[in-house]
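Researcher: Structure for this, please.
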Amino acid sequence: MVFQRRLRTACNLLKPGFSALVDYTKMELLGLTDAVQHVQKIFITSGIGKLAMVWERETFAKLTVDSLAQKTDSDAYKANRKSFFNRSEAEEWLNS
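Model: Predicted structure, token format:
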């Protein structure tokens, strides 16, 4: 809950269209679904532009996050998010 409040506060300080990189390489599966749903809502309501997610490897957690993203009502969110297995590639995509 504290993380979500801090994320919302930080996102509200940014201009709509901002980019974000989320590093899931150390994410534990426990509580992932609830956490990701809350984070997606915060990003969408804050006006995120591009979202890059970095994963250590193809995992059930990644499949779960990708599935949850496809269930959102925001076409822009779905179109402007991409998963990577390399942080530098994710940063390059965000900067393009």
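Researcher: Any notable elements?
Model: Residues 17-95 form one domain. Residues 36 and 65 are 7 Å apart (CA to CA).
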